[in-house]
Write a structure and sequence with these properties.
single chain; 358 residues; 11 helices
Length: 358
């Protein structure tokens, strides 16, 4: 007996590729932290590619907000965020997978198969110069997304209807406090410490909130960038929104175990590359030290949220696989907190908790 997902895929193949196309096999792919599921379908017949990726949407919702925190915005989307963003990014020339077909009522999207090699996989074992060259390719694509995307602003695009503001920054800081500190197994924290942390977090949120807003992918990291035909292709862009330019830059260079390859000296070179290309695109001079300070704050804010998120996924969602990334994230946080004037004072308040996470 054919299983339901195979039946649903099979019946939509002729509409996507013509009557001569058929399904040969379906295999599930490793999932991520979202409620979506992915499959690789092998096809046969005229007009069909050899393989495609099938995205299965969460059951019971045709219009999911992928990230729970985005539910703080008043108005929900009137279109599937992935499709809304896909159309916009295609129009501005960002390298995203082709869309072969969409059946929202069935909860299925047919997408181009970009293979299994993410940027992270591609740079393993490479010499330093080659690593830098690949990450510069990723930064060039990010600059394309941020600056062509921002210049082409279209209020029909969901990303321009929401932004990282003080409210969302604080939601994420509170996520860290709740799951990374208070509800973490064995976690216990004094009220005076919480008050001090919240004071600093509120100041950071206000600082970042005041920065110019650019189109951001929001999860622009080395596992969401696929290498296909020696180019960097972008996936998982449905949570795009407006944020400081440094946000996606921090995501790319400070995620999971990225700094095991992107060491501080390489990170500094890539930050400088992005900054100089940004200045060229905007045709203006800027203060690199100020840019770097905001980059560091963005990295700290994101990594604190990530720690809370990984504990939440483990405790609430039953997804412990991300816990292996907590120790490297904490080690990076210790370094960045010490280097930022705005956060140096809270590092002693967190050291005991960080040690328990290592």
């Amino acid at each position: 007996m054919t299983d339901p997902i195979t039946q649903r895929i099979e019946c939509n193949i002729p509409a996507a590729f013509g009557a001569g196309a058929s399904l040969a096999s379906v295999a599930p792919l490793a999932g991520d932290a979202s409620s979506r599921r992915y499959y690789r379908a092998r096809l046969s017949g005229a007009g069909a590619p050899p393989t495609m990726i099938v995205m299965e949407l969460a059951a019971g919702s045709a219009l999911p907000l992928s990230s729970e925190e985005l539910a703080i915005f008043k108005d929900g989307p009137k279109e599937l965020p992935f499709l809304n963003m896909h159309r916009f990014l295609m129009a501005i020339g960002v390298k995203v997978p082709k869309l072969f077909g969409q059946w929202e009522s069935d909860g299925l999207l047919f997408l181009e198969d970009l293979g299994d090699i993410a940027l992270w996989d591609r740079v393993q074992g490479l010499a330093e110069g080659e690593v830098i060259a690949w990450y510069r390719k990723a930064l060039d694509e990010l600059l394309n997304l941020q600056f062509r995307g921002t210049a082409a602003r279209d209020n029909r695009c969901i990303a321009f209807q929401q932004r990282f503001d003080a409210q969302l920054y604080m939601w994420e800081f509170e996520h860290f406090i709740e799951w990374g500190l208070e509800k973490r197994p064995g976690g216990k924290i004094a009220k005076t410490t919480l008050d001090a942390l919240r004071k600093t977090f509120t100041a950071i949120a206000a600082t970042l909130d005041r920065q110019p807003a650019y189109l951001n992918h929001r999860d622009y990291h080395s596992w969401n960038l696929m290498i296909h035909e020696e180019t960097v292709r972008v996936i998982d862009f449905q949570d795009a929104l407006l944020a400081p330019a440094q946000y996606d830059l921090a995501s790319l260079l400070n995620d999971r175990i990225t700094d095991s390859v992107i060491r501080p000296d390489i990170e500094a070179r890539l930050v400088r590359y992005f900054f100089e290309r940004k200045c060229d695109l905007e045709k203006r001079h800027a203060d690199f030290d100020r840019f770097s300070d905001l980059y560091r704050l963005s990295a700290i804010q994101r990594d604190l949220k990530v720690v809370g998120r990984f504990y939440y996924l483990d405790i609430v969602k039953g997804k412990p696989g991300y816990m292996k990334f907590v120790p490297p994230t904490v080690r990076r946080l210790k370094r960045n907190l010490a280097e930022s004037e705005q956060t140096r004072s809270i590092l002693p308040l967190l050291l005991e908790h960080f040690e328990a996470m290592l």
